[in-house]
Specification:
binds coproporphyrinogen I; single chain; seven-stranded parallel β-sheet; alpha/beta; about 375 residues; globular; 15 helices
């Protein structure tokens, strides 16, 4: 099948999340879930049985099908979709091999050990050639969504990707990645800049392909001290938001809202709210009232129920979700979500209760 073109997309019927991000009036908080297309859904497991993870990412029809699964299942209870892909496609595009190993997660076959290993990285990455499959998946999904909800694009932030490239997978302490910051600060900055340049290009390409909002995942922000966050994360996050916006304007593309999710970096909330992102996403350790005070309505806030609350039974979910909606309050630019991705063993009906509660309560408090 010839890829569809990034034009004549169906008209958007639900722009609640875009309005919340832009600070316009909303009748209730929009809601979506990080990792909403994933292992907790039986329909995901069924498709996944026959295909490897990265085969799905690289096959636009399959990536599109998985993106639509939660939208088809929950219908009007979800206000956004996020393209099915992974943050680790950038390290792959840079020349590193990443496998998805059952029970372990992502595994790099040859992680970076010292800066000498830069010789194994591709010099000038052709982003369209290496990651064009993500663009095709986005364009196809925009058509297949038929305007039901906006489609989000995303990337992993430079520090988080650098950490994976050195650790070679998930890690409890990030001891290897962090030792680079102490042993090789100059080379660490060089690597972060290389990732940043690709990230900017990739996000602009995602918008060109049809992404209507962008999220940057700094999943390992909280492993850095405030000093090191300011040194090794924040400058690159700012470059990304600023340069992506410049490029979108220069290319005559839509200036789409951008979200930063720096998990664990509660100490940087003020800086993040002054970093050219429209939305700051919060993990569950941040009190919404504190976040509202520190960010002073400069940004929309996203989050932040503890993902494990979905194991608490329907009554507890209703109670905790209601408390969250009230804490953000009726005057805030709140985009409801969990404080991190949904866990693979959650009952899909528990998620339904969360979504229903958020929509009902957040509409009630705005009446
Ligand atoms: O529905 C969606 O949210 C879209 C798809 C999506 C996104 C946004 C996936 C699919 N991954 C991601 C982002 C992602 N990937 C992040 C940032 C968000 C976060 O902090 O959770 C991170 C850190 C990854 C890396 C990754 N990929 C991990 C974590 C490993 C670790 O221990 O550090 C894992 C387990 C994956 C695999 C993965 N990615 C996505 C899915 C559905 C899966 C499961 C793969 C499988 O089927 O085995």
């Amino acid at each position: 099948m010839a890829p569809l073109k990034a034009e004549n997309f169906p008209k958007l019927q639900n722009d609640l999340i875009l309005r919340a991000a832009r600070g316009e009036k909303i009748e209730r908080a929009p809601v979506w879930i990080m990792r909403q297309a994933g292992r907790y859904l039986p329909e995901f497991q069924k498709l996944r049985k026959n295909h490897s993870f990265f085969e799905i990412c690289r096959t636009p029809e399959l990536a599109c099908e998985l993106t639509l699964q939660p939208i088809d299942r929950y219908g009007k209870l979800l206000d956004a979709s996020i393209i099915f892909s992974d943050i680790l496609v950038i390290p792959q595009a840079m020349g590193l091999e990443v496998l998805m190993v059952a029970g372990r997660g992502p595994v790099f076959t040859a992680p970076l050990e010292t800066p000498e290993d830069f010789s194994r990285l591709t010099e000038n990455v052709n982003v369209t050639k290496e990651l064009g499959y993500v663009y095709e998946a986005i364009t196809l999904t925009r058509h297949k969504l038929e305007g039901r909800v906006p489609l989000l694009g995303f990337i992993g932030a430079p520090w988080t990707l650098m950490a994976y490239m050195i650790e070679g997978g998930g890690s409890k302490t990030l001891a290897k990645a962090k030792s680079w910051l102490w042993k090789y600060p100059k080379e660490s900055h060089a690597l972060l800049q290389r990732i940043t340049d690709i990230a900017i290009e990739f996000l602009v390409g995602q918008v060109r392909a049809g992404a209507q909002m962008l999220q940057v995942f700094e999943s390992w922000g909280g492993e850095l001290s405030p000093y090191d966050f300011n040194e090794y994360s924040l400058p690159y996050l700012r470059q990304i938001s600023t340069k992506v916006k410049e490029r979108l304007v220069n290319e005559g593309l839509d200036l789409v809202p951008m979200t930063i999710f720096a998990k664990g970096s509660w100490y940087a909330l003020k800086e993040l709210s002054e970093s050219n992102y429209e939305v700051v996403s919060l993990d569950w350790t941040v009190d919404p009232v504190y976040a509202l005070e520190v960010t002073n309505n400069k940004v929309a806030l996203q989050g932040n129920m503890d993902p494990t609350a979905l194991y608490g039974g329907f009554d507890a979910i209703r109670e905790i979700a209601t408390r969250m909606v009230h804490a953000f309050g009726k005057d805030s630019r709140h985009i409801a979500n969990l404080g991190h991705g949904i866990l693979p063993t959650v009952d899909p009906e528990a998620l339904r209760v969360y979504l229903e509660t958020v929509q009902k309560v957040s509409a009630e408090i705005r009446k």
